[in-house]
Amino acid sequence: MVNGRVRILFRQRTTLYRPRRSGERKRKSARGCICGPDLCVIALKVLVKGDKEVEGLTDSERPRRLGPKKVCAIRKAFVLRKKDDVRKYVVHREIKRESDGKCFYKAPRIQRLVTDKRIRRKKVNLRRKKETWAAGKENHIQYEKILSKYLKEKKAAAKKDVVDSNILKKKKSETADGKK
């Protein structure tokens, strides 16, 4: 409740500060809530209109400079159904060039618009995802087959080595017995 700037210790529940950690507080500079002659601009919103017109504010009709941009906002503004084409209802702005006086129109790009192209792209992406999943599964099965074949061969080779080493030991022991 002061006329000028003050340094306030902010915590989580205030609008001017977003803590980065839980329980964090920070001292920041903010302007007090009392209006004074030092203010040059005050941002306000008219909630209730009184008996008289406010000069320069409510006395003249000023249409919106820009129309809605999102699909749902356009549908809401023009009371459209889902099957209606939203692209016909986009607000176009007329712009005149100062250099040659030519007139052209500008319109916003519609956000969240589901077109045939978008649906097709979604289907293609889903198909590609399924194909890569199937290919990965097939590769995994082939890898398991090769691995099991390799392990069987390795086991057979180890078994053969054991048998060969046993035969060699037997021969050595027989030759050793014959020499004695």
Model description:
This protein has 180 residues and is α+β, with helices and mostly antiparallel strands. It has three domains: 1-45, no CATH class; 65-113, Single alpha-helices involved in coiled-coils or other helix-helix interfaces (Up-down Bundle), CATH 1.20.5.2650; 114-180. Helix content is 40%, strand content 11%. The protein contains two helices and four strands. The strands form two sheets. Strands 1-2 form a two-stranded antiparallel ribbon. A hairpin with a 6-residue loop joins β3 (93-96) and β4 (103-106). It is elongated. The relative contact order is 0.06.
Q: Key features?
A:
single chain; 2 helices; 4 strands; Single alpha-helices involved in coiled-coils or other helix-helix interfaces; two-stranded antiparallel ribbon; 180 residues; elongated; alpha+beta
Low-confidence stretches: none
Number of strands: 4
On the 0 to 100 scale, the average pLDDT is 90
Q: Tell me the Rg in angstroms.
A: 40 Å
Fraction of helical residues: 40-55%
Strand order of the largest sheet: 1-2
Structural class: alpha+beta
Characterize the biggest β-sheet. 2 strands, antiparallel
Global shape: elongated
Estimated share of beta-strand residues: 5-15%
Number of domains: 3
- The helix count comes to 2
Distance between the termini: 115 Å
- Chain oligomer state: single chain
**Helix-strand topology string:** EEHEEH
